[in-house]
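Per reviewer request, we include the raw input and output of the structure prediction for the construct analysed in the revised manuscript.
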Amino acid sequence: MLGFHALGIAPIGGFPVELAVVYEEQVVYAATEGFTTEPDDMPANIHFEGRLKSPPAMERSIIDNAGIGGAASIGFGSMELENSDGYYDGIVSNHAIDGRRVTIRLGDPDSFSYPEFGTVFDGAAEGWQLTEAGVLITLRDWGYQLEVPLARAYYGGTGGNDGTDDLAGKPIQQCWGVCENVPATLVDPLNNVWQVHDGPMQSVDAVYVDGVPLEPEYYDADLDAGTITPSVAVDGQVTADVHGAKIGGVYIETTADIVKAMATENGGWSDDRLDLAAFAAMNAIQPAAVGYCATEDINISTAIGELLGGIGGFRCFTRDGILQVGIFGEPEGDPAATFTELEIKSIERLQPPSGFYPPCWRRRVGYRRNWTVQKGGLASGVSTARLAYLAEEYRYGSAQDNTTRTAFLLAQDAPAVRSFFALKSDADAEAARLLVLTREPRAFYEVVADAQPYTLDPGAVVKLRYPRFDLAAGRAAKVLSVADNAAQNRVKMTVFV
């Protein structure tokens, strides 16, 4: 049996400007069969109306049309409540459920207390729709809470480090990790103060005016405020090489640590909303130094997606609403489940995403991103090597296999990955890893199988054994998307072999 509860919010009274709006909360409890929690349960003595028409249909994925990872991982679902007698009419008409928490648990009230039910969904409602016979509720994961500005502060335009009047409302730039040639903002013209980062940072390694480096004795850096003050008059574009944000006094520069900090420090999430073991595992697999600079308004979700995409990573949410991260790679490790001809009801070989077919003969990965591309307006003293660097946004590490071009006449030179590595060696290593994944045809399957729903997650490894295709001997496969059908005890998966 499934138990469901959701929080709805309704405004009380009018909206006079001088008064704060008061809201009334109402929690909706429903289940596939009616039951009442015990006095010592949490919540206690609550009746669940037997109005949940069917188990929720839910789908989660870490794949899109182009490839795998980055910001492609989103979870959606829906559920319906019985309402042919109009039981919910007033609640739906007078309450807003958008963005409110929805928890769905699975269990047998004859054998377990409600808190012992297993959580199969902890996320948010996207909205509800009232029909003559029911209430349709659309669901989504907690990712929408990361779709908020990355900026922690904006210039007020009141002078000093608060910026000039023309900066009012502009986000204060943030730098994470190893960032080269980031733009500096003149916040205090009277005192010649330029800002490169919002808050404490590790170091300012070089300062440039129109591409020419200033000698260290000609500027002071306030690492707590993230500002630079040249001691000479400046007439031109100021940029800097920096080691960016320090969080709690600690400098961070790996993708996992920066993503975690963006969610917690900028997004306000607590550590208990993150799968810390998954973040630690990502650090172990990919410990390379990276650099990310937010020069304009951008939301946290986009920034995290870009960072993870740069290392072949992905994010998703567990069924109990915890943010996970991972790196897409070969299907390795112990399988979470095995599916044979007995369980598999249908299997279809799919057209691979464009990043996987035709196979790739070369992979390129960016490094040492230049955060201020400068092709003109530079001083006469800029060296030839520096001019070449400033004219390009990226340098590229690469790996290639010419035998793939011989075997596959349409083999592709895949688009370069917009990564943020500080070192060429790390970009080369990532390019080589990606080439192994994409230089030969890889099989993608859609599999419908009898299985206990709500048990598999994207990124899990399963074993497939089936008499067709290349699966007769059994092969490990990585789950890219999973949709649960609890009414039939089936799952539909997209997998990578």
